[in-house]
């Protein structure tokens, strides 16, 4: 083989290798973009769930306070029933 043919073959091989590198690099870039998109979606979903959890905690505290107030009122009414000579029902 003469040097021109060897040079042409090497140029073709280098072109093929370059094409493979670009293809693999682009696939990696697409994979990274997809991964970042998924992470962003998960973070948004997590933030929404944390907000909802905080709202439910607040609601739970309110309901517990109402229950406490109702139990106090029931006890007061039972005491009043006993003072009036009645028997409170269980």
Describe it.
Helices cover about 90% and strands about 0% of the residues. The chain is mostly helical and about 90 residues long. The longest helix is centred in the middle third of the chain and has 81 residues, at about 5-85. The model has no long low-confidence stretch (mean pLDDT about 85).
> What shape does the CA trace take?
rod-shaped
Major sheet: size, sense and barrel closure?
A: none
Specify Rg, calculated over alpha carbons: 38 Å
Topology pattern, helix = H, strand = E? H
Structural class, by secondary structure, is: mainly alpha
Low-confidence stretches: none
Distinct helical segment count: 1
Strand content: under 5%
How does the SSE layout of this entry go?
Layout: H1 3-83
Task: Describe what is shown at a glance.
The protein is mainly alpha-helical and 90 residues long.
């Amino acid at each position: 083989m003469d040097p021109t043919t060897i040079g042409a073959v090497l140029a073709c091989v280098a072109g093929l290798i370059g094409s493979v590198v670009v293809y693999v690099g682009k696939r990696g870039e697409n994979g990274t973009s997809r991964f970042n998109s998924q992470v962003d979606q998960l973070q948004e979903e997590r933030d929404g769930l944390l907000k909802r959890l905080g709202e439910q905690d607040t609601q739970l505290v309110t309901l517990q306070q109402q229950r406490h107030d109702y139990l106090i009122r029931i006890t007061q009414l039972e005491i009043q029933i006993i003072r009036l000579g009645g028997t409170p029902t269980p």
